[in-house]
Amino acid sequence: MIGVINLEFGNIFSVCNALKFLDAKYTVVTSPADLDSVERIILPGVGSFDRGARKLKVSGLRDALRDKVLSQKVPILGICLGMQLFGQASEEGEYEDGLGFVPHRVKKLALTEEVVRLPHVGWNAVASNGLSIFSNIPENSCFYFVHSYGFRCDDFKKNMAVTRYGDQFVAAFEIDNIVGAQFHPEKSQTVGIKFIQNFLSK
Amino acid sequence: MLRYRVIPVVLLDGYSVLKTIKFDVRRNLGNPITVARIYNRRNVDELILLDIDASKQKRQIDIATVADVASECFMPLTVGGGLSSVDEIANVLGNGADKVALNTAVLNNPALIRESSGVFGRQCIVVSIDVKKDEQNDYQIFSHAAGRIDMSLMDWVREVESLGAGEILLNSVDHDGVMCGYDLNLIETISNQIKIPLIVCGGAAATSDAVSAINGGASAVAAASIFHFTNITPEDVKKDLSANGYPTRLLI
């Protein structure tokens, strides 16, 4: 059973639609009790870091997830803001801490001479660097991004897939049971569905 | 690097797909779910679904239609049509839309841009601007549903960005459905004013029109008539863009 966390304004419809397409059984999670029967977790995310982090704290999910993921090693996939919430904190947020699964801060994407528009919106090629979560996905496949903040490659250094928009930044990471995707696999057509399928096989 | 996007637009008058000419003459084209399914199979980059009568009729786009279209789409979906509050936007996002297009509501209440981007993140908020030339051949904001518009197009474009819109969808009323090419002068004028992505719409008839639009500063091209009424597919447009140095996401 997959637990899909609903942070109130998350677009869980599309994630659930993808799971339905893959014939995967899921349940919507809004409180710690909902996590009881769950064997893997998806944290989608739309909105802002502060709102998401606050909602996790207030609902009790913050502590419950830290236990499930860090102690019980339940596989978890964070999508877009969901991935950012795995970090320590975000430049976008002023008040709240992330889940702290990775000890890094989320930072605003840099504008360069070449890159003048933010948010980063559209399809971009991802170099998977051999992460197993990208198995059977052609190298440099395009996934759909829509965001203005992300993790820096300098912080992660390894366990990461990268993309470039002006500078390079972390497109996805995979550390043991924890997977983060800055892009939206549920909106990335065939390769996105394959990515989710790979997560379901972890 | 980021690919350039080619985005089909599907217009609704409540429940049916239609296409307009100069925002006026209409042709009915059938069922939105069928249209969405075909576009999904064609691996399009995104889809824009707009109910063009919603604001005028003081209602929102039909939520069941949104959900049905969204379940056919494994690519991003932008939805618009009479959305005028955070709750209405939340309802649409919760039913499968990834972004919302706001037009009439924000002309009447610009603060909604700041409010909604604050709640949902600016990447969810697309502001759609319809533009028509006046008798002096100057570009003016066009609306058939908002009240009197006292502001200049340039001021509005800049205000929309500063209030927190994630993207602008720029529609030329004069070129709509006429299939004579995009309004390149309009695109060049606007693209220099903003630092958020610019999607342009209105007039595409050939793949080369898309190339000209991107040359003129657009981040993405949107179109409807070319896909409804010719043999040209979104993939054809993307191939021409790639061949002209504008990388796109192509089927292997």
Describe this structure in words.
- The complex is a heterodimer of chains A (about 200) and B (about 250).
- Chain A is an alpha/beta fold and about 200 residues long.
- Chain A is about 25% helix and about 25% strand.
- Chain B is of the alpha/beta class.
- Helices cover about 35% and strands about 25% of the residues of chain B.
- Chain B contains ten helices and eleven strands.
- Chain B has helices spanning about 30-40, 65-70, 85-95, 105-110, 110-120, 155-165, 185-190, 205-215, 225-230, 235-245; strands spanning about 5-10, 15-20, 25-30, 45-50, 75-80, 100, 125-135, 140, 165-170, 200, 220-225.
- An eight-stranded parallel β-barrel of chain B has the order 1-4-5-6-7-9-10-11, surrounded by seven helices.
Helix/strand layout:
The complex is a heterodimer of chains A (202) and B (252).
Chain A: E1 2-5, H1 12-21, E2 26-29, E3 40-43, H2 49-59, H3 61-71, E4 76-79, H4 81-84, E5 89-90, E6 105-108, E7 120-125, E8 142-147, E9 149-150, H5 153-156, E10 160-165, E11 167-175, E12 178-181, H6 189-200
Parallel strand pairs in A: 1-2, 1-3, 3-4, 4-12, 5-6
Antiparallel strand pairs in A: 6-9, 7-8, 10-11, 11-12
Chain B: E1 5-12, E2 17-21, E3 25-30, H1 32-41, E4 47-51, H2 63-72, E5 77-80, H3 86-94, E6 99-102, H4 104-108, H5 111-120, E7 125-133, E8 139-141, H6 153-163, E9 167-172, H7 184-191, E10 198-201, H8 207-215, E11 220-223, H9 225-229, H10 234-243
